[in-house]
Write a structure and sequence with these properties.
By secondary structure, this protein is an alpha/beta fold. It is about 20% helix and about 30% strand. It has a single domain, classed as Ribonuclease Z/Hydroxyacylglutathione hydrolase-like (Metallo-beta-lactamase, Chain A, 4-Layer Sandwich). It is built from 6 helices and 15 strands.
Length: about 230
């Protein structure tokens, strides 16, 4: 292991593009290896398990290697494969926004379900943003703290507004290095100005505008990409 590395972020589900051997599907998922704990986490699951499992396998990772699953929100394209993951790996810890905790506990009676209410550490250097709600949608983001005390933000669809998650990440008092995921209808572009890597994918409505405004910071992501920090 390279001691300088903090996280590997492998894109295992998206609908825009893919590398050879990987499959696309509507939704988003990122497989994270935490070098601090030497453990795998999964952020969101995409919609279809056959697509997700193929892409995880392409990274030479087994479903049993995944110790924790963080669900940004309950929409099918972000939580649709959770049931199949849980069937294979019932010992996983599942983290959901607090507003969805009861629904997930009802659906997975014996699972270890954790509801996030506010900024909380899930494991070493990995934080949930806590629960945000927007038009009856409960959502959380994931913050990864690198060894350089920089923050990587992972978002599912950012329904409450990407700026809300950026503001919450600022509470950690560290530089935001990257933001990765679906930005939905986000247009408050000034919040992105000091972020070095802007990897807008999945449901981002104004992706071309973001690319044009931040050409050196924008990074195109495809299924099969691995980002290291």
């Amino acid at each position: 292991m390279n001691s300088d590395l903090s996280f590997d972020i492998n894109i295992v589900y998206d609908n825009l593009c893919n590398k050879k051997g990987f499959l696309t599907g509507f939704g988003f998922s990122a497989l994270i290896f935490n070098h601090f704990t030497q453990k795998f986490l999964l952020f969101d699951t995409g919609a279809k398990s056959d697509v997700l499992f193929n892409n995880i396998k392409m990274f030479n990772v087994d479903i049993l290697d995944i110790k924790k699953v963080i669900i940004s929100h309950s929409h099918l394209d972000h939580a649709g494969s959770l049931r199949e993951i849980y069937a294979l790996n019932p010992d996983i810890d599942i983290y959901v926004p607090k507003g969805d905790e009861f629904a997930f506990k009802s659906a997975y009676l014996n699972a270890k379900i954790h509801g996030s209410t506010k900024l909380m550490e899930i494991e070493k250097n990995v934080f949930s943003s806590g629960h945000f709600d927007w038009s009856h949608i409960n959502e959380q983001a994931l913050f990864l703290q690198t060894s350089k005390n920089e923050i990587i933000i992972l978002v599912g669809c950012a329904h409450p507004g990407l700026e809300q998650f950026i503001l919450r990440a600022n509470e950690l008092n560290m530089h935001i290095k990257a933001v990765i995921g679906g930005f939905h209808g986000f247009r408050k572009f000034s919040y992105l100005e000091n972020i070095e890597i802007i990897a807008a994918c999945h449901c981002t409505r104004y992706k071309d505008e973001i690319n044009n405004k931040f050409p050196t910071q924008f990074k195109k992501l495809c299924v099969g990409e691995c980002l290291t920090f």
